[in-house]
Amino acid sequence: MSEYRKILEKQRRFFATGKTRNLEYRRAQLTKLLGVVIEKHEDIEKSLYADLKKSEFEAFATEVSAIIDEIRCAVDNLESWLEPIAKDSPPVFGQAESTVYYEPYGTVLILNTWNYPFVLCFKPLVGALAAGNCCIVKPSEVAPNTSRTIADIINTAFSEEYCVAIEGDVAQTTELLKERFDFIIYTGSTNVGRIVAQAAAIHLTPTVLELGGKSPCIVDKSADMERSAAPICWGKFINSGQTCTSPDHVWVHKDVKDELISALINKIKQFYGDDIKNNPDFGRIVGKKHFARLKALLDEGNIVFGGETDESQNYISPTIIDGITLENKIMQEEVFGPVLPVLTFERLEDVVETLQKREKPLALYLFTTDKSSEELIINNLSFGGGCINATLMHMLNTNLPFGGVGNSGYGFYMGRWSVEMFSHKKSILKRALTDEPSPLFPPYEDHVKMLKQIYLGE
Length: 458
Hints:
By secondary structure, the protein is α/β, with parallel strands linked by helices. Helix content is about 40%, strand content about 20%. It has helices spanning about 5-15, 25-40, 40-50, 55-80, 120-130, 145-155, 170-175, 190-200, 225-235, 255-270, 290-295, 350-355, 370-380, 415-420, 450-455; strands at about 85, 95-105, 105-110, 135-140, 165, 185, 205-210, 215-220, 250-255, 300-305, 310, 315, 320, 340-345, 365, 385-390, 410, 425-430. The strands form four sheets. A seven-stranded mixed β-sheet has the order 10-13-14-9-8-15-16. Helix 5 (about 120-130) links the parallel strand 3 and strand 4 (about 135-140). Helix 4 (about 55-80) packs parallel to helix 5 (about 120-130). The longest helix has 26 residues, at about 55-80. It is globular and about 85 Å long.
């Protein structure tokens, strides 16, 4: 028996004791995790700086505080989230009560990514534990410092039989995927997502895949260019563009393209100053492989701002590229870096038609003051989630479900939606044992008229 199977069997035995079904036990474990996160918040911030050069503000605001909010929200609302739901029963069933119960799946595997390694690990983990599951967490080896800190936090807070973090590389992930879990959630690239889905299919294991894609940002003619520039730049260049929901590219009406580009350039300078490379608020690309891929994307179009690189630091400056078409290489893959391609349009309907033919993105952003533009985009395009006149904020709201659709993934989590996702909804119909004749039992001859009267009005 492999080491991982031994851990999994240990978790199955612990889950079978029923201890994790107790709400007070779940609250106590989440509270313990909260204490460890608060105690080790400086370790989290240092790890993020070591791997991604994340500023103290970005590290705390987008990762640490988000985890704290998620845990407190779950602890405060767990009982109401898990309250059984009474449903109506068809009259043909006679005296019956129908109820939906939330039931934990059992053992959950969480495969984490590297770009927001803490928040994208702990948000689903909090949901899985709140739902009553046992968990095995595999942090991403691409960010080794954060991987060690994640493992330290989880293995400090919990016993192995309940929740454990396992470090390693692709080989460890491959071995874990050979085991039979009750639920798997993976956050990362679409290509790896397919591998995870194939491995899960062998055991018919339900999965959540949080992937990515080319999330468009559309700026129509009615938008306020100056006010639009700040949220676009923030959403694009936070974490050096390494955000799954960042604006991948901009579609802007041709009549206001120059005005928007000018506003974006001014906002970048306002955010990061003239010496961006030495500004502590702007981070770095995670590794050499990703740096080389992004640098190659700078060869097409016209760089109207930025374009500076430093391989020794994995540094790529905030960059805006004009003169881009759908045929350019940068439009064939997710950018996932601080490089913003700009495309133009004349009719918003043409953008809709173009995007309908492409893979469904994880996010979409629209900047407009025209209600009809909002309705056109929301009613005619499929995407995971998005914002009007903002970026990223939809995924920071724990009251909204976060997830993809189609090629950008499936399933959702966040706040109560996490508990929904990591719980099996078990339906129970309780019927009174009476002498009342049922139209469902034979002989059927006398029941036909009654059923047709109920359902057809005959």
